[in-house]
């Protein structure tokens, strides 16, 4: 995971996806990551609908900066196929 994301919120979102592969429920993931339960749900949904980059990109603050993964070849993580909403 190191080197793929640029801020703590992206790291938390990526961690939420990983925890879902570990069969954690939304409430457990929310408690562990510090993300709101609805945010966890939205991250998982966005991963399924639009891919990894869209799911974890930072959308906090006024400027809604565009964030790209440092390694642009990383679009898909096979282990995340097991994620269910």
Describe the structure.
The protein is mainly alpha-helical and 85 residues long. Helices cover 48% and strands 0% of the residues. The chain contains four helices and no strands. The longest helix is centred in the first third of the chain and has 14 residues, at 8-21. The chain is globular and about 25 Å long. The two termini are 22 Å apart.
In short:
The protein is mostly helical.
Describe the SSE topology.
Layout: H1 8-21, H2 26-33, H3 37-50, H4 52-56
Helix pairs in contact: 1-2, 1-3, 2-3
Which labels suit this protein?
48% helix; mainly alpha; 4 helices; single chain; 85 residues
The largest sheet is: none
Question: How many helices in DSSP terms?
Answer: 4
Cα distance spanning the termini: 22 Å
Mean pLDDT, as a whole number?
Answer: 78
List low-confidence stretches.
62-67, 69-74
Main structural class = mainly alpha
- Work out the strand percent: under 5%
Number of strands: 0
* H-E string: HHHH
**Radius of gyration over all CA atoms, rounded:** 12 Å
General form: globular
Helix content range: 40-55%
